[in-house]
């Protein structure tokens, strides 16, 4: 049937054609629907259901028990600590590369490494830190035998709060570098020149001009780093097992399928994590939009 052929009901039939360039988006749409939207819908629905499928609020009420609230609080503290430390160190590194007068050839390898390290997590990362800072790790043994510093006697344990925080810094710092570097690049030379002409010192320029402009980007990136750490599951489980009571480990214990687990309580735990990370990501998007007004 041609595009101008009249159909039996008298309407002109039009051949619907999907532009070929949309075909490139189909894998992304399929991946998003199968591995993001549908699992999220299952989690949200499961949080409000009993095992037989009836509606209930008991799963959400179960989140307010002492052990679960403690797990959320520990997860929030670890996420905040790694986000703040990661943002401070990452900002210092990015500022040194962009504004510190370092050779330009350093920037390319640094950003390449940051792109790889920001996605390096799970069992390989946990093994790397155990082999480095574990009880018999390379650095631990070297400091004890050659320098006389016993990390264990100083209170550091890789399987503790600060141990997991330090491990998270491995991917938090590179992520901060990747995100904040374009923002630092956006600082215009004219702003520094104008401040110098008006008699401002370098400290006054950063305090009154550069830092207020970068502040939305910094705060937004901290929010993103918080969400990134709060949702990390594989690294925490592989590193600490069940020795640290955080939400991802508690969630894994509920949904792994043994007789002690409650999958629908696990759905409620995951639903709570979605809410926390959703708020953090929404804050990041809002602050990033504010920062882009100045940096365009």
From TrEMBL:
Listed InterPro entries: MetI-like (IPR000515), MetI-like_sf (IPR035906)
UniProt keyword terms in alphabetical order: Cell membrane, Membrane, Transmembrane, Transmembrane helix, Transport
Annotated transmembrane regions: 20-38, 78-102, 122-143, 155-184, 204-226, 233-253, 265-287
Family according to the record: Belongs to the binding-protein-dependent transport system permease family. CysTW subfamily.
Main subcellular localisation: membrane
Protein source organism: Rhizobium wuzhouense
PROSITE patterns, per the entry: ABC_TM1
Cellular location(s): Cell membrane
SUPFAM superfamilies linked to this entry: MetI-like (SSF161098)
Domain named ABC transmembrane type-1: residues: 72-286
Highest taxon, organism lineage: Bacteria
Record keyword Transmembrane present: yes
Protein name as annotated: Acriflavin resistance protein
Lipid bilayer topology: Multi-pass membrane protein
């Amino acid at each position: 049937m041609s595009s101008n052929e009249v159909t039996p009901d008298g309407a002109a039939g039009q051949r619907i054609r999907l532009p070929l360039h949309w075909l490139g988006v189909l894998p992304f749409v399929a991946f998003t629907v199968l591995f993001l939207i549908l699992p999220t819908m299952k989690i949200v629905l499961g949080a409000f259901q009993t095992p037989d499928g009836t509606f209930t609020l008991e799963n959400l009420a179960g989140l307010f028990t002492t052990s679960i609230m403690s797990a959320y609080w520990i997860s929030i503290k670890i996420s905040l600590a790694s986000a703040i430390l990661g943002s401070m160190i990452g900002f210092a590194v990015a500022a040194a590369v962009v504004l510190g007068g370092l050779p330009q050839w350093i920037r390319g390898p640094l950003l390449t490494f940051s792109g790889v390290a920001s996605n390096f997590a799970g069992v390989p990362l946990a093994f790397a830190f155990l082999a480095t800072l574990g009880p018999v790790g390379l650095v631990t043994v070297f400091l004890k035998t050659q320098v006389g510093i016993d990390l264990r006697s100083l209170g550091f344990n890789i399987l503790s709060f600060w141990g997991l925080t330090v491990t998270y810094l491995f991917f938090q710092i590179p992520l901060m570098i990747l995100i904040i570097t374009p923002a630092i690049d956006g600082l215009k030379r004219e702003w520094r020149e104008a401040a110098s002409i008006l008699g401002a010192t370098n400290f006054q320029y950063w305090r009154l001009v550069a830092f207020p402009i970068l502040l939305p980007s910094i705060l937004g990136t901290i929010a993103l780093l918080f969400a990134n750490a709060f949702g990390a599951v594989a690294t925490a489980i592989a590193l600490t097992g069940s020795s640290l009571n955080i939400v991802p480990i508690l969630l894994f214990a509920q949904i792994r399928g043994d007789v002690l687990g409650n999958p629908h309580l696990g759905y409620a735990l995951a639903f709570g994590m979605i809410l926390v990370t959703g708020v953090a990501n929404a804050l990041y998007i809002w602050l990033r939009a504010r920062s882009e007004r100045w940096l365009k």
